[in-house]
Write a structure and sequence with these properties.
mainly alpha, 2 domains, 4 helices, about 75% helix
């Protein structure tokens, strides 16, 4: 292991510390960080991956569908196993 590796690690830590302190100072002096609103608006405009699957799951698991399915299964099981004499 050469002497350069610890120096590089130390330089990286100092750079990260300086960047963190700069962000802390920016956050302490501003309501929003520069670019926050633009990034947030851009992210909100992006389509949600899996939106179609999400809509399908939401439709299938809605209260009405679950209750109707439960009632239908109950009637089928009742008719299949509870036959009168």
């Amino acid at each position: 292991m050469s002497i350069r590796t610890p120096v590089r690690v130390l330089a990286l830590w100092v750079t990260l510390l300086a960047g963190s302190l700069a962000l802390v100072l920016l956050a302490a002096t501003n309501d929003t960080l520069p670019g926050d609103e633009a990034i947030t608006e851009w992210m909100q405009e992006q389509p949600l991956p899996g939106q179609d699957l999400s809509d399908l799951v939401r439709a299938v698991t809605s209260t009405e569908v679950v209750l109707a399915t439960g009632a239908a299964v109950s009637l089928i099981l009742f008719a299949a196993f509870c036959r009168g004499p």
